[in-house]
Design goal:
The complex is a heterodimer of chains A (673) and B (338). By secondary structure, chain A is an alpha/beta fold. Classes of the chains: A alpha/beta (673), B alpha/beta (338).
């Protein structure tokens, strides 16, 4: 069939002389003058009439008369209009809209993602090497790790996709937390991430990849995966070893097998943070726009997807990894676990669910009742990306901005904020230094509703929990996976069928009514507790805290344990002639109070030392020569260490340490023998 | 039942035909695909390697069309590739296949045509209409229904013909019409091979009209067919598996029409982009853009369409020139052209 793109132009250019007088009036009635002047500074500065400018020159210059009309698209999509050289906006208003012609491309929410979707192999890797990251040989890396492991209770080797100490993000925060908690129980945390960052697996033909090496939160250098494996294989001693894989982006499954073989871990944990083990599209978004549900690799959906052609090989490589390493699979939600196993049907040693955070009752607070009738305050929280639901939020904010019953906000780190008409941007973020930064910002701005509209099943969904902790209700869809489950479980918000239902819910006023009802009848505030990671994971129900601070000394690489009597420890020290002999006073870390909203202390705390005596002689709290490093400022009656404090003991042969009986220190169940 | 498929094209459509071959093999591994080439390979192209994806290749000049070059000269590219379909159909029926299925080279298969052995198992001829549901907007009525009235009710990108008496009768009739006048001549009620087939259900017994939404989905009917993925990763059109999609004018007017009629649905756009990637994968660099051997006289001079039109209106000239491509000067003189 020769279906032409000609259509019919009933109003020809020849007729324009009759219509010309009315053309500008028609255009003026629908042109968004404020938009036009805001977007086109030259028109604004020349103080031109927007409609006259559009009719005289604007449409020929490809300018848009309103956010909802795309001049260039209309001419491109309607060759008959282009050929007739008529004003496209005027044509649309008087005729095109009645014929069913489109004012802008369809699918504005997803169009750009679809048009830029590329097979993983065609995406360039992003190389990022820190200037201060020296190349490490196997021997050098092994030396560093061995030194750190001296006296340690274990070694955790963790893999993920980037340098978590520098990159903001949910997974990175979790890894930082995991590192601190393992360190808090006396374990060394060695983190390896690919220097060439990429979404999906690194191709095997690239050869051994280079890895960023971060030791206990400090950048050490870069090493090849081969050298890292050699360094790990040379580690002596019975130190307990764990392998924790957070994701495989930029990694080669083959080298992970080598690393595991070298490490010989007692447990290997594979975290379900996304579905990247099952497909190069870690969010299972077919062609980057639509959740696919992980169909079989040979399915038609995979065949027409940009990720499909590589999926079979991808799965085979991941399968070989799981056959080479007996992973305990851990997901932060049951929904994620189930879907992951469908996406990547590979053998695992065990499966379990371990949430990253939880909402707890807040004991001493009463909900604030308000009779405020101001517009409902609606927020998008986080990075403005399609896979977070930004497109739907933008459409909603545009469609509802003139209704008068909503005010729209965007909360994100300062560099992620996008300036848009009708949006109030608020710089806020959650970080190790400010674990409740976002919660506090949402509280401060009295947000009523937070949208969580990810088009894929989030494995956990942190934003809904932050929103609920901040007293807001959450609007989400059935597609959002665990986010929807969280909202349902907390009874704090609505789970709607799809994006169209969300738009409908807002545009018909139901959202505003919901917000007003909540202001009149607020729910009791809840408290957010952070930090479900491998460091808090227990397969046997073991607790994540202990009253034993595991206080000990490290002297020249040798661990010295003392005798405990209630809250006092006595250590015997070997003879020496050195007046400057310094040892390390090591302990577990006090369970940080920053795990709840109501604490603000983010310091790394070891033990609270009430007294320190060398050969029976008291060491003063302000004796900075003795208390050489790793001591926080003295407080009334005690002084915190950071868990690894340096103490100059000189020739003393007896050290007595008194501690505050604080009770709880971190204990990572997986480090238990 | 033995089934054979064929497609007809020139070398410039080779990437499309390769996609057809690849997808047909996946959907129906037991259906051989014959390529009918209405062209000669451009210099430097290894034709046998280029056509390796086809089970057999039929050169159009081997189709028992009398005075082939004289006959072919009447047609432009689209007309020529269409005009040989009747002769090729007769040829394949003559070889004894139980059923012959034609696909346009710009079709891709997604799921098997199960209904061909089900609901249409007894049909002698199966045709797919352009439109299976009424359109609603003025633009869609113009683009789709009025266009179908001009170009034909049925899309002849697909036809299945059974090797039985009604099927053979239809094939003989259709081949004869195409031999005589397979023209883009809508003023006279002819549009290549398609308009003739408006008559087929009336002229022949046992002609089935396949209204399955999964058959021959295309920009001209997607406004009335909801394309979507099923939970098992299949593609559906309405309640039907999508058997084949017709990527008409991909990279040209088809882009505009897909934009116009896909609506907010993203699946047609996904298919459209997938097809673009397939064409890039199957591109053949040795084929110059727009290549068609019969586009020029033997000396390389392009043949204007006006010359072909004048030529086919002059039977006495056609009778005189066994090879009108060979001597432009004589032909022009005979046609009283400058």
């Amino acid at each position: 069939m020769d279906q032409t793109a000609s259509g019919r132009v009933l109003l020809h250019a020849d007729n324009r002389s009759d219509a010309e007088a009315g053309e500008q009036a028609v255009v003026a009635a629908s042109l968004d003058a404020a938009f036009y002047l805001r977007r086109y500074g030259d028109v604004r500065e020349a103080r031109l009439d927007p409609a006259a400018h559009y009719c005289d020159a604007g449409w020929r210059e490809g300018r848009d008369p309103a956010e909802w009309f795309d001049t260039s698209f209309y001419l491109r999509a309607n060759p008959d209009i282009w050929a007739a050289a008529v004003n496209p906006f005027w044509h649309f208003l008087v005729q095109g809209c009645h014929e069913g012609r489109l004012p802008q491309p369809q699918g504005r929410i997803w169009r750009r993602e679809l048009e830029t979707a590329l097979p993983p192999a065609q995406r360039p890797a992003y190389w990022s090497v820190r200037d201060d990251a020296p190349p490490l040989s196997a021997a050098a890396l092994g030396g560093h790790v061995q030194a750190a492991c001296c006296g340690a209770r274990g070694l955790v080797v963790a893999l993920s996709h980037d340098r978590y100490i520098e990159v903001p993000g949910g997974t990175q925060l979790l890894i930082a937390d995991e590192q601190r908690k393992f360190n808090g129980d006396g374990a060394v945390y060695l983190h390896l991430s690919p220097v060439a960052a990429r979404l999906g697996l690194a191709p095997p033909q690239d050869g051994p990849i280079w890895l960023n090496v971060i030791l206990d939160g400090a950048m050490l250098g870069i090493a090849t995966a081969e050298d890292a494996a050699e360094a790990l294989s040379a580690l002596p001693g019975p130190v307990r070893r764990l392998l924790v894989v957070h994701n495989l982006h930029g990694q080669q499954p083959e080298t992970v097998v080598s690393l595991a073989a070298a490490l010989r871990p007692s447990r290997s944990i594979f975290w379900v943070h996304d579905f990247g083990a099952g497909c190069g599209s870690p969010r299972l978004l077919r062609n980057d726009i639509a959740f696919c549900g992980a169909p079989p690799a040979a399915s038609m959906a995979c065949r027409i997807c940009v990720y499909g052609s590589e999926r079979a090989v991808h799965l085979a490589r991941v399968d070989a990894l799981f056959r080479g390493v007996a992973f305990d699979l851990v997901a932060p939600s049951a929904i994620a676990l189930d879907l992951w196993q469908r996406a990547a049907p590979v053998p695992v040693a065990s499966v379990s669910v371990h949430g990253h955070a939880a909402l707890l009752p807040c004991p001493d607070s009463t909900p604030p009742v308000t009779l405020d009738r101001s517009p409902a305050r609606v927020a998008f929280v986080g990075y403005p990306a399609f896979h977070k639901g930004w497109g739907v939020f933008r459409e909603l904010a545009l469609a509802a901005r003139d209704l008068g019953n909503y005010q729209f906000f965007h909360f994100a780190s300062a560099d992620a904020l996008l300036a848009h008409d009708g949006l109030t941007s608020v710089a806020a973020e959650t970080s190790p230094a400010q674990p409740f930064g976002m919660v506090r910002a949402l509280v401060a701005w009295r947000i009523d509703l937070v949208l969580a509209l990810s088009p894929w099943p989030e494995t956990f969904g942190y934003v809904p929990l932050e929103a609920i902790a901040a007293g807001a209700d959450v609007v989400t869809t059935e597609a959002s996976g665990n986010a929807a489950a969280e909202v349902s479980a907390a009874g704090r918000g609505v789970v709607l069928a799809d994006d169209a239902a969300v738009l409908d819910w807002f545009l018909h006023g139901a959202a505003a009514r919901h917000a007003m009802a909540r202001r009149r009848d607020p729910m009791a505030p809840l408290m957010l507790r952070h930090g479900g990671s491998a460091a808090t994971l227990a397969f046997d129900g073991a607790p994540v805290s202990t009253t034993d601070p595991d206080l000990h000394l490290l002297l020249d690489g040798v661990r010295i344990d003392g005798k405990r009597a209630l809250n006092r420890w006595r250590f015997r020290l070997p003879r020496t002639s050195s007046e400057s002999r310094t040892l390390r006073l090591r302990s577990r870390h006090f369970q940080p109070v920053w795990d709840t909203l109501h604490g603000a202390d983010t310091r790394r705390l070891g033990v609270a030392v009430t007294s320190l005596r060398l050969n029976g002689k008291r060491v003063a709290a302000d004796d900075a020569r003795r208390r050489a490093a790793g001591w926080h400022p003295p407080e009334s009656g005690w002084q915190w260490t950071n868990g690894d404090a340096k103490l100059c003991v000189g020739r003393a042969q007896r050290l007595d340490v008194g501690l505050l009986p604080l009770g709880t220190y971190w204990q990572a169940p997986l480090l238990a023998p | 039942m033995s089934t054979v498929c064929f497609t007809s094209f020139s070398y410039s459509y080779l990437p499309r035909a390769r996609v057809l071959a690849e997808t047909l093999r996946l959907a129906h591994p037991d259906w051989p695909l014959w390529a009918v080439l209405v062209d000669e390979p451009p210099p430097g192209l290894d034709a046998s390697a280029a056509l390796a994806g086809f089970d057999a290749v039929l050169a159009a000049d081997g189709l028992s069309i009398p005075r082939f070059r004289s006959w072919l000269f009447k047609h432009d590219l689209v007309e020529a590739c269409t005009a040989v379909k009747g002769a090729a159909l007769l040829h394949l029926l003559g070889l004894g296949f139980d059923r012959v299925v034609y696909f346009d080279p710009d079709i891709a298969l997604f799921h098997p045509l199960t209904a061909l052995d089900g609901a249409y198992a007894a049909a002698s001829v199966v045709l797919t209409p352009h439109q299976c549901a009424p359109n609603e907007t003025a633009l869609a009525i113009g683009d789709n229904e009025l266009a179908a009235l001009r170009h034909g009710v049925f899309n002849l990108g697909f036809i299945a013909v059974r090797n039985d008496a009604p099927g053979r009768a239809f094939a003989a009739w259709w081949a004869a019409r195409l031999h005589d006048a397979c023209y883009d001549d809508m003023a006279n009620g002819v549009f290549t091979d398609q308009k003739y087939c408006d008559l087929a259900p009336a002229l022949f017994a046992n002609v089935a009209v396949a209204r399955d939404p999964g058959w021959n989905a295309a920009s001209w009917n997607i406004s009335r067919r909801r394309l979507h993925f099923t939970s098992d990763g299949g593609i559906a059109a309405g309640d039907d598996r999508l058997a084949f999609y017709h990527f008409t004018k991909h990279g040209g007017a088809g882009d505009t029409m897909t934009e116009r009629y896909a609506g907010e649905a993203h699946v047609p756009h996904e298919l459209w982009r997938w097809y673009g990637r397939c064409l890039a994968t199957h591109a053949e660099p040795a084929i110059p853009p727009g290549w068609w051997h019969y586009a020029t006289f033997s000396d390389g001079t392009p043949i204007p369409r006006a010359v072909r039109l004048r030529y086919r209106q002059r039977p006495e000239v056609m009778r005189r020139f066994d090879d009108p491509f060979a001597n432009a000067e004589d032909l022009f003189a005979s046609l009283s052209l400058p």
